[in-house]
Structure formats: structure tokens, C-alpha cells
Amino acid sequence: MAEDAVAQQVEFGVDTFGDVTHAPDGTPVPHPQVLRDVVEEGVLADRVGLDFFGVGEHHRADFAVSAPDVVLSAIAGRTERIHLGSAVTVLSSDDPIRVYQRFATLDAVSNGRAEVILGRGSFTESFPLFGFDLGQYEELFNEKLDLFAALLAEEPVTWEGGFRTPLVDQRVYPTTESGRLKVWIGVGGSPESVVRAARYRMPLTLAIIGGDPARFLPYADLYRRALAQFETEPLPIAVHSPGYLADTDEQARAELFSPYKAMRDRIGKERGWPPMGRDEFEHEITHGSLYVGSPETVAQKMANTIRTLGVDRFDLKYSAGPLAHANMMHSIELYGTEVVPRVRELLAEEHAPIEL
């Protein structure tokens, strides 16, 4: 395959959790305005040529999005090309049929651009909110994923599990024009989850949010081996990692540190982590999974991760706690207009034939 074709096959997206941002005077922006800002960020992502816009689902005060499909529908009405999906949908505390119906509806109103990334979620607020036992964390996900997978053929479903009434020859509507909704499995580093994605023949999204990205190569290789063992054709692998773009390396680090630390320390306090120091922040930028800097710096690091893991899509999580909407808009613009073309150049160079 020609080197340009190899580079062009890679897709580039952005993800957000709808983090509650801060106004210039330091006050939190109200949830309704944050949601409107997320829509504008999605519209910009389409305008600068990105391939995917993902919105996470949370049920807590510091993230404004609890219904990603509704936000994505608003973006769908103002965009033409970009694919729109969740990042992630917490399937364990939702109903698989309702999730399927919502995203099949999004697929219709967006002319076939809907995707859904299913996961267990790293936050657990949805379990008590919707009346689920957190002690059944694994069992709930396993069963609900099995039902969701059964719906993808868009044929009558007969199915039985332990957490809901059985289905007998049941059709689920609406159907999609393509005949199959695009569904990914989000994985944070569990080999069992990687094999599960292969077993259900679903593309894999690796959430790499800390440490050297190369440590996830065994998971990517495991997924490819598992697909082969299940006699399934190769399927895409995506990476989800945090990052931030500014005109210079110094500016990017200076603008991101405080909001990133605020978000990291708030979550860390809930989970027993010590506060993040500047050294840890700098180490993640230099050696870890934080893609921060000028377009050239981020492009070089991103291309290296794509080459190392052999992935098909890179989704940059561009929101970071109270980081201002204006800063995120500029970051998205730099990512689409400067980083993505440069990464494609670097990947094409990697595959260029050697002249003898």
C-alpha cells in the first residue's frame, strides 16, 4: 500500500466530558452554558476536518453532560461530515435497548454518522442514581453487553439474562440505514476486556490516560491475536488520551497546568491519590500520555504513539476541568488545521520506500 494511503487511513478525533469550565473571574460556568459551549466545540471540530467528536456520560456536578446522545443530536443538526459518539456510555447502569434506540435515532438524524463507545465507566455515581448494586459491577456489564450485541443484527431477538425480563422474538426500532450501528468497547487496561471486545467483534478503544503509551502494546497485540482466534477480520483500534494545544510549548504548559491540576486533584482526593505536583505534570508530557505543546511537539508525540501501537484512530481528550472554552476552541483549531496534517506527513514518511 502506498505510504500516503497508509497515513490517510488513520482517523483523528476529539473527546470531552463536558467539564464545568470557569469564567475569566474564576466562577464556574453554569451547566446550560457549558452544554451550549460543547455544541460549539463539536461544530468547530467538524469545520476543521476532524473525523470524530466524542462526548462522555457523567452524573456529577463537575461534568455537565449526562445525556450525550441529546448533545450529539444538537451537533448533528449543525454539521455535515464528522462522526458523533459517546465517550463512553456507561452501559452497566443503563438499559441496552434504550441505548440502542437512542443511538440508532442519532444515526438517522445525522445521516449515518453515529457511533457509541460502551464501557463500565470509571465513575460510579450512576449506579445508586438508577438503582443498581455497585457490587454487581462486572455482572451487570457482561450481561448488558451480551444483550446489546444481540441487537446489532437488527433481527428478532430471543434472549434471557438475570437482571431483566427475557425477550422472545423481539424487534427493536428504529433500524439503521447501514444495517449495523458502529459500536466500540472502551478498555482501561484489562486483558479480559480486550478479549471480550474481540469476542463480540467490536472495535477497541484504549483509554490511555497515564504512563508510557507503549505499555499498551501488549493489549493491542492481544486484541489482534484474539480476533484471529475468533476468525474475525481485523477491526480498528483507537486511543483516547488527554492533551492540549497552544501556539508554543511554553504557552500550552502554562495554560493547562492549573486547570489540569484542579481536575486531577479533585478526582484524586476521592480516590486517595496525593496532589499532583509540577514534576508529575511535566513527566507525563515528556514521557507519559499527556499530549501538550505546540502543534509540532504534539504531532511528533502523537505520530510516535500511532506507530508504536499500530492504531487506526487517535482521540484527544481536549477538556480539562475549569479550562476555559476559548482555550479549548483554539486547541481544537490547532489540532485540526496543523497537528493532523503534520501527523499524516510523519506517518507517510515512516512508510516511504527506501531508495537504494
Automatic annotation (TrEMBL):
Record bears the keyword Cell inner membrane: no
Keyword check for 4Fe-4S: no
Luciferase-like domain: residues covered: 28-312
Domain of life: Bacteria
InterPro entries linked to this entry: Bact_Lucif_Oxidored, LLM_Atu2307-like, Luciferase-like_dom, Luciferase-like_sf
Keywords, sorted A to Z: Monooxygenase, Oxidoreductase
GO molecular function per UniProt: oxidoreductase activity
EC number: 1.-.-.-
SUPFAM superfamilies: Bacterial luciferase-like
One Pfam short name: Bac_luciferase
Protein name: LLM class flavin-dependent oxidoreductase
Origin organism lineage: Bacteria, Pseudomonadati, Pseudomonadota, Gammaproteobacteria, Lysobacterales
